[in-house]
Amino acid sequence: MQIEVVSILIGIITIIIAFFLAVKKKIHLLRGYNHQRMSQRNKQKLINLISSCNLICGTILILVPIMLPWWWTMNAIYFVLFANVSILIYSNIVLVDKK
Questions:
Q1: Domain residue ranges in the chain
Q2: Most CB contacts within 10 A, which of 25, 52, 77, 93?
């Protein structure tokens, strides 16, 4: 029961962060973001990529505990962790300007 509640809370927080990134353009919410290493075009790509990933992951974290048994919740958490690490690696390789 506790894992489901934690998953739903993390999902809500993730969707709120996605909203602030996509709509309000609060890029400072990203930990370790350095505006000097990003061009304006890549900055918008990064915002779109991370906010859409957070929106999908947050929706998964909210819906899975409601609809499926508890062990699927653990799998959803692992999926979200893998997705965030993949986005981190992709953004550091492709979107950050090499200087």
A1: 2-95
A2: 77
Q: Which pLDDT score is estimated for 99?
A: 66
Nearest to 61 by CA among 48, 79, 45: 79
Question: SS in 3 state form for the chain?
Answer: CHHHHHHHHHHHHHHHHHHHHHCCCCHHHCCCCCHHHCCHHHHHHHHHHHHHHHHHHHHHHHHHHHHCCHHHHHHHHHHHHHHHHHHHHHHHHHHCCCC
CA gap 7, 13 in Å, rounded: 10
**What's the pTM?**
0.84
